[in-house]
Amino acid sequence: MSEGAPTYDLGKLHGGLRLPAEKQASTSRPILIAPVPAQLVLPLVQHVGQAAEPVVGIGERVLRGQLVADTHGSLGAPVHASSSGRVAAVEPWPVARRHGQTAPCIVIECDGLDQAIDTTEILVDYRELDPVSLRQKILQGGIVGLGGAVFPTAQKLMQAATLPLEYLILNGVECEPYISCDDMLMREYAADVVGGAQVLMHALELPKCLVVVESDKPAAIAALAHALGDIQDPRVTLKQVPTIYPSGGEDQLVQLVTNREVPSGGLPSDVGCVVQNVGTAAAVQNWIARGEPLISRVTTVTGDGVASPLNVLVRLGTTVAEIVALAGGYTERAQQLVIGGPMTGKSVTTDLVPVVKATNCVLVLSELPAVGDERPCIRCGECAEVCPVQLLPQQIYWHARADNERKLREFGLTDCIECGCCDLVCPSHIPLTADFRRAKARMRELADEKARARRARERFEHRNQRLQDERDKRDSELAARKDAARNAGPDAIAEILDRARHRGESDKDEDS
Ligand code: SF4
Ligand code: SF4
Questions:
Q1: Residue 21 CB: number of other CB atoms within 10 A?
Q2: Which atom in ligand 2 lies closest to the alpha carbon of residue 381?
Q3: Is 153 close to ligand 2, i.e. is its CB under 6 Å away?
Q4: 274 & 187 share domain
Q5: Is the same domain home to 307 and 220?
Q6: Ligand 1 centre distance from Cα of residue 15 (Å)
Q7: Whose CA is nearest to atom 3 of ligand 1?
Q8: Less crowded by CB within 10 Å, the N or C end of the chain?
Q9: What does the alpha-carbon distance between residue 247 and residue 226 come to, in Å, rounded to a whole number?
Q10: Residue 497 has what pLDDT?
């Protein structure tokens, strides 16, 4: 090993690939701060969980940072206005999550003033809050996992808080080619990253934090080391790891830096760890220290289909078309627009989709990657060699094509992280990951169908039980009345006859 080379004290990561980084073009200049656009389009679903519900009306004036849609207690995250203006509509708009198909969005016509809400009520010293109150406060900031998973951060903390925990792991491992937003964020906002780490540690009463970065990011490492030197917090340690895709996956990262294996179907919290992306930590700090909810993010705009690749700090709700323009616009060869990276991103058919909490990268490619014709599996085993989850992709592939749900579960399809490594090495060009995505979607559908059938059966049984209870009640009342009549004395019989006579007379009166 050469002098000065990083040393690692790491657990074993199975499989994975060393991929070309392709990040030089977008990291050659500082993060550009995008201007506030004339219009913001804010989808009601920018997170895992239920859609947020609008809490503003059409025509209403809103301020930067104002709550515009809330979650009302379900799994989800609130949405805030990214600038000041007037609510123009709540209407369907193309979104990346659905490959450019539409979803409900709040549309705000900006007034150019960028006037913010009053933060005096919001700002508090987080150290004065108990962990439960701090987690509630983080929930109000609309913060979700910015590494791509977009799981609501506060709810992830709340789930984890029920278990014994040891490590907060800040994930600065940005191993997918082309994406460089976390690298640039760590270089330019390192103080926010480590400040956010301290807030998150307080929210979970955690004793240790590992900030994990790949060793090929020297500028980010230097900036983080400087920020850690400033805070002098011995609980927080910087850890370097080699660049192997997909070591930034949550379970893979836990294995790599703690040598603990997350159980199949489990979570990092099952082995005492909570993983948060570095961008999420910076967003938490921005909310807690400055009172600004999640209304902007750093996004990479890159690929050989844009003129000047860069990273841009952009208000959520700005369209992809606008940030591509900031990157010098499309080149003549631009052919494919992908939201996310080349391995896990989604192709979209329009650049009118807005930048949302999940938008880490806008990738414009000049030509579609050449994919050979699919051929039968030759059982070479290459796919199993590279699978970071130690699955047997070739077996899963057979069961996916046969739609055999039981076998798919048995072979661990639900643990597949859809990293795409198996596709990349398959000499038969079998689109394994696409098959696995479809099979997982089918399994979710089946699970939903089963849940719907179970609820319908429960409703039916409940109704039958209610009708039976009513019948039983009527029968027992009738029996009680009969008993009473049988046991009644002469006075009671006279009274019953009298009542019957009166009823007969009043019926006659009504008839006449
Ligand atoms: S896509 Fe799934 S099966 Fe294929 S290598 Fe990745 S985790 Fe393994
Ligand atoms: S890499 Fe492709 S050909 Fe080889 S075993 Fe896996 S699916 Fe079959």
A1: 20
A2: 5
A3: no
A4: yes
A5: yes
A6: 10
A7: 393
A8: C
A9: 25
A10: 67
For residue 397 and ligand 2, the question of a CB distance below 6 A is answered with yes
pLDDT of residue 332: 93
Residue 511 clears pLDDT 60, i.e. is over it: no
Does residue 170 contact residue 129 with C-beta atoms inside 8 Å? no
- Give 2's pLDDT tier (boundaries 50, 70, 90): very low
On whether both 308 and 395 belong to a single domain, the answer is no
Task: Give the Å distance between the CA of 425 and the centre of ligand 2.
Answer: 8
Provide the token pair at 150: 């977009």
The atom of ligand 1 lying closest to the CA of 432 is 4
The secondary element (H helix, E strand) that includes residue 231 is: helix 218-231
Task: Name the residue range of residue 429's domain.
Answer: 382-437
Kindly state whether residues 388 and 304 are assigned to the same domain.
Answer: no
Ligand closest to the CA atom of residue 437: 1
Is pLDDT of 503 > 70?
no
Q: Write the pLDDT tens digit of every residue in 267-290.
A: 999 999 999 999 999 999 999 999
| Distance separating alpha carbons of residues 209 and 187, to the nearest angstrom | 19
The candidate with the shortest Cα–Cα distance to 13, out of 254, 334, 189, 192, is 254
Which protein residues touch ligand 1 with a CB less than 6 Å away?
386-389, 391, 393, 416-422, 432-433, 436
Q: How confident is the model at residue 389 (pLDDT cuts 50, 70, 90)?
A: very high
Structure confidence at residue 385 (pLDDT): 96
Mean pLDDT across the chain: 92
Q: What is the DSSP string of 124-180?
A: --GGGS-HHHHHHHHHHTT-B-TTTT--BHHHHHHHHTTS---EEEEEE---STT--
Given the CA of residue 386, which atom of ligand 1 is nearest to it? 5
Cβ atoms 339, 96 nearer than 8 A:
yes
The conformation of residue 64, written as its DSSP 8-state character, comes to: B
What does the pLDDT average to over 97-118? 92
Question: What is the mean pLDDT of the segment spanning 136-163?
Answer: 94
Q: What CATH number corresponds to the domain at position 243?
A: 3.40.50.11540
**399 CA distance to ligand 2 middle (Å):** 14
